[in-house]
């Protein structure tokens, strides 16, 4: 009898104290997370990597493949956190997707009302695509931060600080590229496409928003040229003097890229894409000289 009463009392005590024990467990988890985060931040800025030539590093990796597995596991964790943030920002964008779609449809004469869907799942797929692009634009700074936290331990402390300062700049470049595509490129491209040969064109949501989101994304990505060149120069993979000498080849490559991502085949729209990319390339060359002034 006493044993059963003791068991009942123990069960009753566990039920009563369960909220407090859960709160204690949660606080302990948060405290340990903050502590580990502080240690990681301290190590990120304090540790100095070994200065080894790239061939020696590659040979060491072949001799000890387990080190490569550790790096792959770290990359997996960084990418997982980036994907989780992307899911959150995409869900947030989904709540405002109609306003975003109305804004993207502004270049059309009648706006969103001008689009006509002909497939059952077309509207759903379009909404998800627009939500994903908006979510990526919102999550871009954090994704860039996660990638730099993975790369950072392999570079010097000064380069880590410069990389952290470069993340806001990369975000500004990406958003500037998207704004350039929306305000400058799309109106000209849409006018050309809708009036080509005098043929009547009826826009569909899937084709229109796929076209708009693709061109905005790739132009925004192209605007990252200066940052990419700066980082490569900082890591010693390219030199400003070499890039400056190869400017003719760079223009040819830019022309090929512009032809691939230009929404139309006419030279006017291609020039609209090429012009900013050429300017961004020479800006990147200047940043390469700044990254390593003594070695450029």
Note the main attributes of this structure.
296 residues; mainly alpha; 11 helices; flat
Outline:
The protein is mainly alpha-helical and 296 residues long. The protein has helices at residues 2-46, 54-63, 65-95, 97-104, 122-151, 157-194, 205-222, 225-234, 240-245, 247-261, 267-291.
Strand portion:
under 5%
Number of strands: 0
The geometry reads as flat
The separation of the N and C termini measures 87 Å
The parts where pLDDT drops under 50 for at least 5 residues are: none
Q: Topology, please?
A:
Elements lengths: L1 H45 L7 H10 L1 H31 L1 H8 L17 H30 L5 H38 L10 H18 L2 H10 L5 H6 L1 H15 L5 H25 L5
Helix pairs in contact: 2-3, 3-5, 4-5, 5-6, 5-7, 6-7, 8-11, 10-11
Q: What would your notes on this structure say?
A:
By secondary structure, the protein is mainly α. 80% of the residues lie in helices and 0% in strands. The chain has eleven helices and no strands. Helix 6 packs antiparallel against helix 7 (205-222). It is flat, with a radius of gyration of 26 Å.
